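Checklist before submission:
- one chain only
- standard amino acids only
- sequence pasted in full

Submission:
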Amino acid sequence: MRCEAVRARIQRWFDDRGAGSIPAEVAGHLQDCGECRVYIRTWNGIELQLCAARDGMGDPSPALARAIRNRIAEERAAPAPQRRPWAWFPYAAAGAVAAAVLLFALYAVGYFGRRATPSTIAARSGRSRPAQPPGVGAPALPGLTPSLPLANTR
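Returned file contents:
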């Protein structure tokens, strides 16, 4: 048997409070494996210490048992805490403020994030056609044409 399987069976044996003797295949493995012998000795020592501590404690005093029963009865008899009907209001108000801030931020980014173009400026000023600066769209000197194509700046 493998050590893991033997240790699992040892734990089951301890959980049953050592009912009966150790199974034969576990006993055979313990004769051959020193690590598992140390393992069972360690757990046996722990079990003995726990039993000694439990036996040394004795039964609780009747006054302690009565006090515990009374405390349990008091807690059961106490009325349940009242729910406040408007307990959700601060959370709703905080959510509304957060939503308003988010909507304002989205509006500000959308409104101010656009680049100003001649058509948007004209639309804002009320003109029908955007005003063009001098020299835009016509050659500076009559008869001169640029030899290179103009680059698109957009």
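Reviewer check: The radius of gyration is 44 Å.
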